[in-house]
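Dear colleagues,

As part of the handover before I leave the project, I'm documenting each prediction I ran so the next person doesn't have to rerun anything. This entry is a single chain, and its sequence is reproduced below.
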Amino acid sequence: MKKYTYSLFTCLVFLFVSCSSDDGDTKTDDSALVIGTYSLTEINVNIAQDVNEDGTASNNMLDELDCLDGTLEINADGTWDLNLVELDIISVTGDFYAIRCGRTNNFTGKWTFQSSVLDLNTTNFSTMVLNSSVLTEGVNEDLPGVLNRKFTK
């Protein structure tokens, strides 16, 4: 019986010694992936519109309005800067809207980035998801509003 107790005790000691806490779950800093300059390439609305009256409706208002522009700078020091022409949308009737370029605004702040998600830490913008070289902000407003914005590096 002592032999079995000794064997059981030895196994328990080995079990506790070999099962130490694993602090090897280190998080990699992938923030270098998001640093850079991005140009506004899409401002999408959920109902295609023919704002420029060329006979072709588009969900992407950059296809319809030449005056839309934006540049997002993600800096290595943890700051960001965005110059963005606003999109003014006014409901006219049914699924028709008066859409035009508004004023240019400048926004700045500090950012965080983890697991492909960029957070500009402001209420002015939703989090953005990085896919390759494209940052997509899902605004998800119904017209009169913006569905999403895309910035390309």
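The mean pLDDT is 86. Residues 9 and 28 are 40 Å apart (CA to CA).

All the best with the project,
I.
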